[in-house]
Write a structure and sequence with these properties.
Elements lengths: L1 H21 L10 E4 L9 H18 L1 E9 L2 E8 L9 H8 L9 E6 L8 E7 L9 H13 L9 E3 L2 E7 L5 E4 L26 E5 L2 E9 L3 E6 L9 H9 L10 E9 L2 E8 L3 E2 L4 H13 L8 E5 L2 E7 L6 E5 L2 E9 L2
Parallel strand pairs: 3-4, 5-6, 11-12, 13-15
Antiparallel strand pairs: 1-18, 2-3, 2-18, 4-5, 6-7, 7-8, 8-17, 9-10, 10-11, 12-13, 13-14, 15-16, 16-17
Length: 348
């Protein structure tokens, strides 16, 4: 009895250590799921991964368990589910909310599903449920994480065309391990962002427009990267905003932003360097937002804050590099997508 008790304690301690090392802030009960980490065991062969992931997704509803992999892009963390054999997510938004819970689930800013493509024009499809159960059109950090996930599953193409609710997105695997994503051109027309703020710039767009919210007057720039963004430039990120109050107030201002909005507060550090804090629609404060980084570079160029050049964007979780090319109007984002751990989670 003492030997068995000792073994159980050792097993739980090992799992606890693993979770604390590889998912800081995402502690869950050892009984909720099991994990493996690739630092101590090699990745499964693609065929094995595909077989286990497919079996797990097919039986998730009946067995109450689902196979997952955890990835992060500069701390913006996601639970990845392999549904490449089906067109719709294997989990509901409600199940995804439970899975994203950092106390009683795996923990994450959202759940990403790698799905069967809708046509031969695409290699895969991508759907996301935020941690609150809402469904965004796209996620820049998430698309990099999905590209890394596909590579780990055995897909070996250098680029993929992925169908998203924001349209086709094309990530490219770089030799240095980073991922560059062709994010397409930004949408600048106010009604298509969407925002009800009065257009005050060329092309019926919104640049440094006045908005009263949360008892303050803001100068707002509106850009859509398939999902809506409100970009606000400040002199000092630490002194000029009450992040925990201003962020949610602006996000939920449906008079100005009918679909709600992702909010980026931005400080210009140099002509090629911006620093930001983000309050994400449906997720709240996150360590990084890829589409937000793209949107704020566009906003900074249009507002005359910086020249049109490759720009370093510093987020709480690290740096992304963004370039808005003049010749094709497309935005290119480069950054990491990093594996954390994988396991089997309980869903109900």
């Amino acid at each position: 009895f003492q030997t068995m008790s000792t073994m159980k304690c050792f097993s739980r301690l090992t799992l606890s250590t693993l979770l604390l090392r590889h998912s800081v802030g995402a502690w869950v009960s050892p009984a909720s799921f099991t994990t493996t980490r690739r630092a101590t065991m090699p990745p499964l062969h693609a065929a094995t991964v595909q077989e286990t992931q497919t079996a797990a997704s097919a039986s998730a509803s009946s067995s109450g368990r689902v196979k997952f992999a955890k990835y992060e892009g500069l701390g913006n963390d996601f639970i990845l589910i392999d549904n490449r054999d089906q067109k719709d997510p294997s989990l509901t938004p409600e199940q995804s909310v439970k899975l994203c819970d950092r106390h009683f689930g795996v923990g994450g800013d959202g759940v990403i599903f790698a799905l069967e493509p809708p046509s031969t024009d695409y290699d895969f499809a991508m759907r996301i449920y935020n941690s609150d159960g809402s469904e965004p059109e796209m996620c820049g950090n998430g698309i990099r994480c999905m590209a890394a996930f596909l590579k780990d599953l055995g897909e070996d193409a250098k680029t993929y065309t992925i169908d998203t609710l924001a349209g086709p997105i094309i990530p490219e695997m770089n030799d240095d391990g980073t991922i560059t994503v062709d994010m397409g051109p930004p949408e600048l027309v106010a009604s298509k962002v969407p925002t009800t703020l009065e257009a005050n710039f060329e092309g019926d767009s919104v640049v440094e427009q006045t908005l009263e919210c949360n008892g303050k007057t803001w100068k707002v720039n509106c850009v859509s990267m398939g999902n809506p963004h409100a970009i606000i430039f400040v002199d000092d990120l630490e002194k000029d905003i009450d992040f925990e109050s201003d962020g949610p107030a602006l996000e939920a201002n449906t008079d100005a932003f009918p679909a709600k909005i992702n909010v980026e507060f931005v400080q210009v550090m140099a002509p090629d360097h911006l620093k930001m804090k983000v309050w994400e629609r449906g997720a709240g404060p996150t360590l990084a937002c890829g589409t937000g980084a793209c949107a704020l570079v566009v906003a900074a160029i249009r507002a005359g804050k910086i020249p049109r050049t490759k720009t370093r964007v510093t987020l709480p979780g690290g740096d992304l590099f963004i370039e808005w090319k003049e010749e094709n109007k497309k935005i290119y984002m480069s950054g990491p997508g990093t594996f954390a751990f994988e396991g089997m989670a309980k869903v109900n």
